[in-house]
Model the fold of this input.
Amino acid sequence: MFPMRLLTASVLAVLAAGCAVGPDYRSPDAPVPDYYIGQAGAQGAANDNTAWWNGFRDPLLARYVAQALEHNLDLAQAAARVAQARAGLGAANAALLPAGAVAGSAARAYQSAETPLGRVLAAAPGNDRWGNAYDANVAASWEIDLFGGLRRGREAAQADYQASSADAVAARLAVAAQTADTYIAIRGLQARLDIAQRQVATRRDLLAKVQLLYAKGIAAEYQARQTEGELAQAEAAVPALQAGLDAAMNALDVMLGTPPGTHRDALRVPAAIPAVPDIGPMGSPAGLLQHRPDLIAAERRVAAANARIGAAMAEYYPHVSLGALLGSATSLSSGHLFGAGANQGAATLGVRWRLFDFGRIDAQIGQAKGREAESLAAYRLAVLHATEDVENAFSALDNRTHQADILVRGEAALARARAATFAGYQRGAGSLIDVLHADETLLQTADARAQAQTDRARAAVAAFKALGGGWDPTVPAQAVDDVAALQRAR
Done:
């Protein structure tokens, strides 16, 4: 009698409260500073960050990013994970609804005469050991979610779906950024390879002149040997750059969802390193919480873990279910199946209560709370890493820009010095070796300038990615509709 009274009191208490057991979710605090250290590094007009790759004004780069967003296999995996999470949400919603089933059967059996029942039947006059059985039933069941365990499960499934949708967006952003970064690396390597080949040609000319002077006894042997070593050093740089270029082209093909070598012909002709677009104001670090899809996914995982605490706590309380069956059964013939005498029905009230299992329930709740604490720490760490990404990207962009500007000025000065050296050589006031040395110094500076310009463009890509550019949280899109709706509601 006591358990029934306790059950009744618990049911009435929950119905009066009208809520589910477990903690209600509150958005966690995030450790974000008030402003970025590198705020001064972001000058210029605001850009449309939803398609930031167009700002580089390189049609081939934009085309490859669009192709990667359509065919990349990492995105195909992310879309499949979204579909799985959507199905999980559908299952959680279905658990709150009544379930029904229709069943029917027809059987014909031959009774053994060696069983107790068979012996009785065999003794009866005119007995037929063949028997028929027919039945058709409609059954329904419903677990009444009195304490909110199923509702908490649905909250967790909803948050998981939103997290997987945000992960899909983050994957799109990562693919776009990686494609652009790889393309820029290809153009930078092509520029450096061209400079390296010119360095080889210059040092070969220099070696030929020094060897001629050495043969005439004008130059020392160490000068000839040193020049040979410098030529070997320049020649060794070419295969290293070529290997890097081949690897970058292969990586781009994989990003585009094609076999390595597919786009090599289209990229064979070198092109300029893409110019860096102006990047608008960085905004505040707090804005990352709405614009970085990876942070949205991490926050949704905290919400899912929080809901699962309630689902675990609901096991403290009884589970109440209703069941019903309506149908017909007969052993005479199928013609009697729906007769009045064949009707059958049942109604059930089920109660399941883990009354003496609270130790296991305590352990399950402890595990759920531990998972929530883990996801909360992961979220806060992700926020810290996000602000770190922004600071590092804009520091790299600012310093690489400064470096590239210095090297451009230095290259211009060395070009003038080379011209003056060549003019002196033409007047007989200098040697061809001086001209070749000037060429070598100029090419070394040009290589450093090309590398700095490449690093600057790649830093710009990293900055767009760090700021969460590449998607619009106000416009729903396929596989990310719930994320967009979530952002509009917050």
